[in-house]
Amino acid sequence: MKIAKALSVLSLLLVTFLFVQCSDDDSKSTTPVKIRLTDAPGQYDKVNIDIQGIQIHSSENKSEENGWQVMNMINSGVYDLLEFNNGVDTLLVDQDMPSGTVSQMRLILGDNNSVVIDGVEYDLDTPSAQTSGLKFQIHDDFLAGIEYKLWIDFDAARSVVKTGNGSYKLKPVIRTFNEATTGAISGTVSPTEALPTIHAVIGLDTISTIAEENGEFLIKGLEAGIYKLAIEPIEGYNEIEVENIAVTIGNITDAGNIEIDAVVQNN
Hints:
This protein is mainly β. It is built from three helices and 20 strands. One of its GO terms (molecular function) is carbohydrate binding. Keywords: Signal.
């Protein structure tokens, strides 16, 4: 009787050990993944984009069709891109993924896209190829147990195209970046009445934002390097450039306060 009880206890301990061991192994083979939406703003009242799904292609994901895994969206539906500029973003996905190499992401758009200009809403024509999935190259590693943060950065100004008949078409201009391999530039532009657009320029690449009402700006997702800031204010103020802004990975470079001069009127 005592031997039977001892064997029973031993079996229970063995099962518990195996369960804990498998749980630990599972946690070590997955990566917490967070995907956020942000935007490079445009001169519109609203840019409404209908995001219906996100898929990730992983070399380790053999269970899904052709390696594509459908992500669990926190909220699918219409997002106004202009609510998410100057470092503001919104969380689209928060889930565990199999660790391994990822090569692509696919963004699935719906048909409910629009732009609001001077208070008037216009439909954004969306080609069928976009609703079947916009693909982006990632080529990164999901390391087991290490949180991976990825941003989808729309360029609202370049994504909305006016056609010859006065309608508007959605031609998404999007980049992706992750926090671990990029840096940022911040600063303040004055006077605030200049309402400038700020361009971070390196080589042939340009990434833009618009200053907040208080003059502050933040441009994220920049690769390491030496940038030029090109400041374009509204009419009545002079454009200005700031050279030699060094960006390093994982850091925010403060460009300080940038003064814009008003255009001098000749009598």
